[in-house]
TrEMBL record:
Keyword Flavoprotein recorded: yes
Keywords: FAD, Flavoprotein, Oxidoreductase
Annotated FAD/NAD(P)-binding domain residues: 50-316
Disordered: annotated segments: 1-26
Name the UniProt record assigns to this protein: Apoptosis-inducing factor
InterPro entries xref list: FAD/NAD-bd_sf, FAD/NAD-binding_dom
Family membership noted in the UniProt record: Belongs to the FAD-dependent oxidoreductase family.
Protein's job: Putative FAD-dependent oxidoreductase.
Pfam family, one: Pyr_redox_2
Length: 403
């Protein structure tokens, strides 16, 4: 339900406005981004039903892109860009990766509307945003995945990566807190690019990568130790109760770690807390996940779907899975939008997925359904290029001369 992600260098989202415009439909106080109605690429047609997608991660972005020539699509995201999450760690050590991994929504949403604001309420007919818009919908798709504070604009996000990189270059010792996939990938990327830096990774669990098999965790541990990363298991660093003093961090086991810089790679909460005050509150399970049926429709709702990490489907939360959800809902919505008396909706069937954690730019560890693989081969698949080309292509973006 929760996943880890570094939180050290994040800034806050824009302040939420308490005043709510009562304008019907899409009538905000400021113009919203709109592209297409007078464009040669087609355009929004009168009479099209409106599909509102809340959340512009891989699930929501891909869905909005897929439906933009079939409906009046409105994407609501608190940031004006989509960030490829599996490239975030590498973006900190290699700025050219960040340039490719952070994509303005308007680059692929050429025939839809974009609202850059957090959604704060949902009624039976409207989504209300923090900046006071009331957006009516015929169909609604909730795709707010995991919550992580990020700047609103791409430029600021790129600057954050640059700042993190400058600090990293200056530091001679770096502490990484958390040994899930994020902490492991970050430690491995730092040590691959800066082999002379002293990297320490502290993890509260008995093994790294606790969300996959033992073997995978052991392989990652072996790899990191072979690169001189100091890995401390079964202890943690609590920055709140024990803040660092003079560059010394204390672990729960009383070990002192000297570090010039730290990265917190811990679990981040689901992006569903805001739903608890909405008309969808009854659709949340005890973990805050959105309960969906086999068509990815909310239980008891005719026109509301959910996709991606936020759903209660018992499967590993992964981008590859979120993309499959998008495809199923895109197909279902296209069928519903076409109308007809009896619309037969497609079903989503969870399947075993492969999980890969990169170890630097050449190696990786892969958890396959019945075995574990590590080294150069999985590294070839994931670590070298991090699926950047494939993900950008899924959004219809050209890669010429870029990758
Ligand atoms: C570091 C890292 C590495 C990963 N590596 C891989 C990998 O190699 N392979 C893989 O398959 N998966 C990987 N994953 C997992 C994968 O990234 C997630 O499963 C996937 O991103 C889920 O997509 P999503 O669209 O459901 O949610 P998210 O990516 O969490 O996106 C949610 C979106 O909703 C927006 N949002 C949230 N609340 C609101 C609101 N109230 N109003 C408006 N917008 C809102 C956010 O701004 C965000 O844009 C990785 C994850 C991380 C963090």
């Amino acid at each position: 339900m929760e996943e880890d992600r570094p939180a050290t260098y994040c800034t806050l989202n824009p302040a939420r406005s308490s005043s709510v415009s009562s304008d019907p439909g899409l009538s905000p106080r400021e113009p919203i981004f709109w592209s297409g109605s007078d464009s040669s690429r087609g355009g929004n047609q009168a009479g099209w039903k409106r599909v509102v997608v809340v959340g512009g991660g891989i699930a929501g972005s891909l869905l909005a892109k897929s439906l933009q020539f079939h409906a009046d699509v409105v994407l609501i995201d608190q940031k004006e860009y989509f960030e490829i999450p599996w490239a975030t760690m590498r973006s900190m050590v290699d700025h050219s990766v960040a340039e490719k991994a952070i994509i303005n929504h308007k680059d692929y949403l050429v025939n839809g509307k974009l609202i850059t604001s957090a959604a704060v309420d949902i009624t039976e007919t409207e989504v209300v945003t923090a900046d006071g818009r009331r957006v009516t919908y015929d169909y609604l798709v909730v795709a707010t995945g995991h919550s992580s504070p990020s700047p609103t604009c791409r430029k600021e996000r790129l600057e954050m990566f640059q700042e993190a990189n400058i600090k990293m270059r200056i530091a001679s010792s770096i502490l990484i807190i958390g040994g899930g996939p994020t902490g492991v990938e970050l430690a491995s990327d730092i040590t691959a690019v800066y082999p002379d830096k002293k990297v320490t990774l502290v993890h509260s669990g008995p093994r790294l990568l606790g969300f996959i098999g033992h073997k995978a965790g052991n392989k990652a541990l072996e790899w990191l130790r072979s690169k001189n990363v100091d890995v401390l298991l079964e202890q943690y660093v609590d920055l709140e109760s024990m803040p660092p003093a003079n560059g010394i961090y204390m672990t729960s086991a009383g070990e002192a770690i000297a570090a010039d810089l730290h990265f917190l790679c811990v679990k981040r909460p689901l992006g569903s807390s805001w739903l608890k005050q909405t008309s969808l509150k009854d659709c949340l399970d005890k973990y805050g996940q959105v309960m969906v049926d086999e068509h990815l429709k909310l239980i008891g709702r005719k026109n509301v779907f959910a996709i991606g990490d936020i759903t209660d489907i018992p499967e590993r939360k992964q981008g590859v899975v979120a993309q499959r959800h998008s495809m199923v809902v895109a197909k279902n919505l296209k069928a519903l939008l076409k109308g007809g008396k009896e619309v037969k909706l497609g079903k989503y069937r969870p399947s075993m997925s492969i999980t890969m954690v990169s170890l630097g730019k050449k190696d990786a560890v892969a958890q396959l359904p019945f075995t574990t693989m590590s080294g150069f081969l999985p590294g070839l698949i994931k670590s070298r290029e991090l699926f950047l080309r494939k993900t950008r292509k899924a959004l219809g973006l050209e890669n010429h001369g870029f990758l």
